[in-house]
Amino acid sequence: MIDLRSDTVTKPTAAMRRAMSEAEVGDDVYQEDPTVNRLEARAAEILGKEAGLLVPTGTMGNTIAIKLHTQHGEEVICESRCHILNYELAMMGWFSGCLARPIFAEGGVLRWQQIQKEIRPLGPHWAPTGLIEIENTHNMAGGTVTPISEIEALCDGAHERGLPVHMDGARVFNAAAALGRPVSDIVRKVDSVMFCLSKALGAPAGSMLVGTQEAMDRGRLYRKRLGGGMRQAGVLAAPGLIALEEMPKRLHEDHANARFLAEGLSKIEGIRIEPAKVETNILIFDVAGSGLTGAEFSAALKQRGVLANAVAGTLMRMVTHYDVSHAECQTALGACEEIARARAAASR
Asked: In the predicted model, what is the mean pLDDT of residues 58-87?
């Protein structure tokens, strides 16, 4: 099967498997796992922050960050399609006691001009704003990249109001590849960043949270409360180090494959997508013109050996990654064309 459901489906490379078997380990709850310690230090260094914390999942990393920056009864400003609001099982409410203040932003890119109108001060009738969260790249907006100038303007405005900014940077290395800038430039002014080792970077598991030393020390306690206090976690940190050091160098290949798919899909009758808006490794396209729902189109693809998810109604999502070659993208494109052509013929 050609699996374009997500970049979470990647298998660890041979080098990652060797590193796992040879990893030097200790008890990470005691902070005695040398491989975990190296990964946390290196992640912080690459992103230009003081300290890092290895967590099992991106959801846990975002949950810890929200808890670090807020108090119960506060609001978190976020984009209306963002992951923390729609795909993390209401953890900002369940664990942090916070309410989302969602704002729809074109392309998923929140700008300070929008946000400043939604900030709520302490008052007798409403929950005050406690945190601003941005997602970069933005998954459900189609892997869009927030320009560095917009991030910095947002952070400057938020910090003037005494508000912290957290970035859900699950795929922030894709943003860096698209912009041709070091990832540290992108996150320079945000207060904390979560990024995934297990998505585009290809590690088998794990995410990183980075920020100040004080925040990561407190975050370690929240990680334990959430059940994330792993023991000999060096077997996961070892492939994470390879993912961090080596895999960003090849992300441009995934982006090129995504653009290839988008350009091909745009030429198929019954499918609608704007190739110019595909910036990284995610593409979302509308199959309404084919007369099929997303679920029906997904099922037809599966019959032809291609896996891709319907995301809503007639919308489909494909995500390119290092386990899918350019040739396999060509095959997937051919399957989409075959489905659309067969449907058009049946409706005549």
From this structure: 97
Please give the C-alpha separations between residue 128 and each of 115, 159, 261, 292, in angstroms, as whole numbers: 14, 15, 44, 44
Q: Is 70 exceeded by the pLDDT of residue 68?
A: yes
pTM of the model: 0.95
**Which domains does the chain show, CATH number per domain?**
11-247 (3.40.640.10), 250-346 (3.90.1150.10)
What is the spatial distance between Cα 187 and Cα 335, in angstroms, rounded to a whole number? 39
Q: How many CB atoms lie within 10 A of CB 90?
A: 11
Give the span between the Cα atoms of 54 and 232, in whole angstroms.
12
Q: Look up residue 344 and give its two tokens.
A: 């058009």
Contact indicator for 129, 100 with CB cutoff of 8 Å:
no
Which pLDDT band holds residue 207 (cuts at 50, 70, 90)?
Answer: very high
Non-local CB neighbours of 185 within 8 Å, separated by 6+ positions: 148, 176
